[in-house]
């Protein structure tokens, strides 16, 4: 599914955490720093953040950001439904989705996972290791994971291989 979930559909949550809107949570539960959410956080490049630039409402949603290419954002431009933004939806190029199709770098993909439908995982392509998926597994750099920092739980990371 691309992330974690507590009683909300993949389309609704985008990433993880209950009780917060898609725009608010962006990627993980509320009350965690941007660094833990693995989405925004000032002072890190778009590639490291895997989501948005700081200082806008987009920063809260952890999805879009003006002035950065789709590849850098790892998601999509604003004005798309949650399903489209989340990383899937047909009609967007792999680069725009920043999530699917083999042959894209970890930075471009942002996330992947085997055995789940595009809608479920929000990030596709089978046969990739956790490191390649840009979401989970300790021992890989933040740049490779595109979602986490070491020392945070799966729930905090907002992109896990468990609870899929």
From TrEMBL:
Where composition is biased (Polar residues), the residues are 1-32, 39-164
Q: Where is this region: Disordered?
A: 1-164
**Name of this protein:** Uncharacterized protein
This protein's species is Elysia crispata
